Amino acid sequence: MSNTNVKKVRTSDLELKDRLVSIxxxxxxxxxxxxxxxxxxxxxxxxxxVVGYGLGKASEVTSAIAKGVEDAxxxxxxxxxxxxxxxxxxxxxxxxxxxxxxxxxxxxxIIAGGAMRAVxxxxxxxxxxxxxKGSSNPHNLVxxxxxxxxxxxxxxxxxxxxxxxxxxxxxx
Length: 172
What we know:
Elements: E1 7-8, E2 17-30, E3 33-45, E4 50-58, H1 61-74, E5 77-78, E6 90-94, E7 97-103, E8 110-111, H2 114-123, E9 128-134, H3 138-150, H4 155-162, H5 166-171
Parallel strand pairs: 8-9
Antiparallel strand pairs: 1-5, 2-3, 3-4, 4-5, 6-7, 7-9
Helix pairs in contact: 2-3
């Protein structure tokens, strides 16, 4: 997410909904026996173009989820959503996971699996075609999906970046 057009968002005026992507039980073997802890990946969003993800680790599931939500609220970004879909096709690779997201016609719905679906629903995208290739590790899938969404640019931001009018963007 080292993109220049990523806009950080404040949490004070947003109504965020959290979605649990995955919970993983981690075991540490010590001299005194096994110690169980939990790690939770959580995605939060206002279903109107703002999304963030976080990782929480704790000895209990509920506190791990709460920590994940707090971490996710610190990493919110603004995503361009136009008419319930994304502006253009985007591919992104993060570690072993590769994601491809495409805009879709109204009525298509969210065609995506697991971790990608949670991120896209939190953003507020209603119609999109998505495919994950490579690793299905939820950590990497969430990071790849959010990074791909951060790479998206709408026509207004392209026109502003190039210093030309909106009509020139479409007409060349």
